[in-house]
Specification:
alpha+beta; Nuclear Transport Factor 2, Chain: A
Length: 187
Amino acid sequence: MRFVRLVLPILVLALVSCSGSTPTTLPPTAPPATVTPVPSKVPPTATFAPPSQTASPAPSVTVEPTDGPTPTAGPTATPTPDPALAVIYNYLAARAAADVPGVQALACAAFDAQAVTEAISFRSMNATLHDDLVCGVTGADGAFTLVACTGTMTTTYGTESREWDMSSFIYQAMPEDGVWTMCGYHD
């Protein structure tokens, strides 16, 4: 322990003098404690006292109002998907999963019974929508937004698998009570 008390101040003094830069210390928040020397048979060979310097205060940042839009931090915005496309994608996924409550939540009132029938019929098919499924708005017919899709879906019944071309259907989407719904197929 005596060795540490003797060598430590020397090492600290050597490090400070070799660093080439002046160490910065923060101003004390309390008065320095009084150190009472401990009697020792070996007198210390060096003492260390940090230089008395005051740290400069941190710079303050002021935000001035501007006439233009204020930039914000964080991720950049991405376009919001068309609600007609979103409801068709979600309906197709719920139908493939044979999710009866899911298709009912996405179907308009006039198509509700047909949506339930479709979901139930998919229970035994083990349907899978492929990643190549792409849908787009193709137009409108009255209150309906028409959505056409390309890509495939596979159904498996027993040991027989079948690929379905999704481009053979045009879906009708429409808002109902403020919510976009799948509302059948366009002729």
